[in-house]
Design a protein that fits this description.
CATH class of the largest domain: Alpha Beta
Shape: flat
Number of helices: 23
Oligomer: single chain
Radius of gyration: 31 Å
Distance between the termini: 34 Å
Strand order of the largest sheet: 3-4-2-1-5-6-7
């Protein structure tokens, strides 16, 4: 087995993306064939390196010589492109490995997504790659394009990517078709691209490997991704944090919210489908911007590359309609977009820029004044550009006809040239069907300004970027807490779970175990009535269903009756069950019922779940997933954003709840998850939250390893 270091792997990915020598296995002179299309693409872009053609039936293709087989190729070629049928791929990869080829691109489908035999062949490809150190792109992919150097290793033809600049976008997608769509959309908007990479089934090299390379790539500023399934989630989270530290935004589209979508992903890529909500919480905390749909992916990517500080997102909106101002306020509130309040008294520069009949506000309606006084755009933009309360300026322009739209665009362009500000500015048409001169939009983009067909899309995109900042929360000082000596693959019964969790700070009612009625009576008298009794066994996770819980026992006589009933109930439910004993617990006062749970996902890592209990949990699913290392203030904020969050703050005259006590339980549970790798799940259900200053307690607890 070849020991390939991270640096060696990165160099081989660089050879894949920037090859000086290419071998085309399956070269063809037949128009429309994969092999012929690859040659045409390389010739169109003027590839200046060595191109070796492999075809046993041709001595020449055009002016180029062919070799009959892989064994006839030189050693140590940078990349081999396999434009051959699926049955021939595995043998070809084995031969290429023997020739010391650094990397290979496999177009053919029919591997992991095609059944057991295809999966076996894909595993063999991965084994050969590990043995030889070869980097594999695919199978079931459309290849890649290096736009910076003009090297297309694909059989599809993309539109010419003519936009240039230091701020470029790298596209990484498991779906080759969607990578091409995103590339086409960005090319149409004159967004400079660094590369397009289609990873397909990822037999050996996954999206995280290519993103890791692009984070270090000086020619890539923003990374746009379409991923149906992360095969190495923890590695991706590590790379995403690296991108965040490097100041390179990752914009991710990840289908799979619906059951049908998850099934489609598995069929498409041969993937084992993961939990979308788990993915969402943890990738967002790592700095990734998660979007809904291709339109949002393109919109957020464009704003990220043209407006590098937009993630700070205190936004000023300039409109030409009072109705649009109201619509913008509604949308901004729904998306939690920050529109700082502004008025005549606190905005002297803006007040001076506007006519007396236009009040200062945000959004600001300048009416139709721009048609009689085009300079109002420049004065307004200049005043906002100098306002420290504003990070991004959005100008929404009504563009009903080309003539009036050009008047406005000319005035805005002149203002931008004169201003020379680095504050991000986005221009949005209000009427998407309005007639606009193409050159007017091109001029804006040449000035580094985004142009969108609707203001709603701008606000949504900026809202996504604003959410990124809100999700970048973690507590560096959070110390892991360890539960020692947990058995593996077991359900820890309630009494032992409570002892373990209670020793680390999770609050429970006073309690003790009893093996017979006499011990139970002594415990109850020591605790004080009323009490609860609960049957205890690792094999009795659902005690209530077995009649193994009896509540509100008020004296010794009731305890004796309850004891007999509990023992009879459990024996009737499970005659063979041997109890560890019965837990006698002080009956808790009523409080607001919550549920708190936690799990360590095998692929993604630790998560904590908080929600309202009872009917709310079953019918409304009013819960939120949280990373296990959030600071207390952010835990509190996210709990209060639950639909029923007002119930904790004093709804309809009820006293406010002790939210801080609930937050401490969640925080402590996160610490326990981070310090105890053996734990699979922890359930605290229900958790009762009392009025402010009176704390919170968990009534039940169960640890699974």
């Amino acid at each position: 087995m070849l020991d390939v270091t991270t640096d060696t792997r990165r160099r081989r990915i660089a050879r894949l993306l920037k090859p000086r020598s290419i071998a085309l296995i399956g070269a063809s002179d037949k128009p429309g064939s994969l092999g012929n299309s690859v040659i045409a693409n390389l010739d169109r872009e003027g590839f200046a390196g060595e191109l070796f053609l492999v075809n046993p039936k041709r001595e020449r293709i055009g002016q180029r010589l062919c070799v009959p087989d892989i064994a006839s190729l030189p050693r140590d070629i940078d990349v081999a492109i396999l434009a051959i049928p699926q049955p021939a791929v595995l043998d070809a990869i084995a031969q290429l490995g023997e020739r010391g080829v650094a990397s290979a691109v496999i177009y053919a489908a029919g591997f992991a997504e095609g059944g057991e035999e295809g999966l076996r062949q894909q595993s063999d490809i991965a084994r050969i790659a590990r043995k030889t150190g070869m980097v594999i792109e695919g199978p079931n992919c459309l290849g890649l394009v290096n736009f910076c150097d003009g090297i297309p290793l694909t059989f599809i033809e993309l539109p010419p990517a003519t936009a240039t600049g230091a701020e470029r976008v790298g596209i990484v997608s498991q779906s080759g078709a969607m990578a091409a769509v995103v590339a086409t959309n960005l090319i149409a908007r004159s967004v400079p691209l660094s590369c397009y990479i289609s990873t397909g089934n990822e037999a050996e090299c996954g999206v995280e490997d290519f993103v890791d390379y692009l984070v270090d790539d000086p020619e890539t500023r923003v990374i746009a991704m379409m991923v149906e399934h992360f095969r190495n989630p923890r590695a991706f989270l590590q790379v995403a944090r690296k991108a965040q530290d490097a100041g390179k935004p990752i914009i991710l589209l990840h289908p799979g919210k619906s059951e049908a979508g998850r099934e489609s992903a598995a069929t498409h890529t041969g993937a084992m489908v993961g939990d979308y909500d788990t993915m969402r919480v943890l990738v967002e905390q790592a700095g990734v911007v998660l979007v809904d749909g291709l339109e949002e992916l393109t919109d957020v990517t464009e704003i990220s590359v043209r407006c590098s500080v937009a993630s700070g997102a205190r936004i000023a909106v300039v409109t030409e309609s009072g109705a649009l101002k109201a619509l913008t306020l509604d949308l901004a509130e729904a998306l939690e977009v920050n529109l700082p309040k502004m008025g005549d008294d606190d905005s002297p520069a803006l007040r001076a820029a506007l006519p007396p009949f236009v009040p200062v506000s945000n959004p600001m309606d300048i009416t139709a004044q721009g048609l009689v006084d085009p300079g109002i755009y420049g004065r307004t933009i200049s005043a906002l550009a100098l306002d420290e309360r504003i990070d991004v300026i959005v100008v929404a322009v009504i563009q009903t006809d080309r003539h009036t739209a050009s008047i406005k665009f000319d005035a805005i362009g002149q203002a931008l040239r004169a201003l020379g500000t680095h504050k991000p500015i986005v221009i949005a048409g209000v009427d998407e069907g309005g007639r606009v001169h193409v050159r007017d939009v091109e001029v804006l983009r040449e000035l580094g300004v985004c142009y969108f067909p609707t203001p709603e899309r701008v606000i949504r995109a900026l809202g996504r970027l604003g959410r990124r900042r809100a999700c970048l929360q973690f507590d560096d000082a959070l110390e892991p807490l360890t539960i020692a000596d947990l058995p593996i693959g077991a359900v820890i019964p309630e009494y032992r779970s409570k002892d373990a969790l209670g020793s680390l700070g999770i609050p429970f009612s006073p309690r003790a175990m009893a093996s017979d009625l006499a011990e139970a009576t002594a415990v109850a008298e020591a605790l004080g009535y009323p009490v609860v009794i609960k049957a205890q066994s690792a094999d009795l996770a659902h005690k209530t269903e077995a009649g193994g819980v009896i509540l509100n026992i008020r004296d010794g006589a009731e305890l004796a009756t309850a004891w007999e009933r509990l023992i009879a109930n459990v024996a009737g439910h499970r005659p063979d069950l041997v109890l560890d004993g019965v837990l006698v617990e002080k009956m808790a006062e009523r409080g607001v019922e919550m549920i708190v749970g936690a799990r360590i996902d095998d692929h993604w890592g630790p998560l904590v779940m908080v929600g309202f209990g009872g009917v709310a949990a079953e019918l409304l699913h009013d819960v939120v997933l949280l990373p296990a290392d959030l600071p207390e203030a952010e835990i509190r904020h996210r709990i209060l954003r639950l639909r029923m969050g007002a119930q904790l703050t004093g709804f309809r005259g009820a006293p406010p709840c002790d939210i801080d006590a609930l937050v401490r339980i969640v925080r402590t549970l996160g610490q326990i998850l981070r310090g105890s790798d053996e734990i699979r799940e922890v359930d605290l259900n229900p958790v009762l939250v009392y009025p402010e200053g009176q704390g919170a307690i968990a009534l039940d607890a169960l640890i699974s390893t």
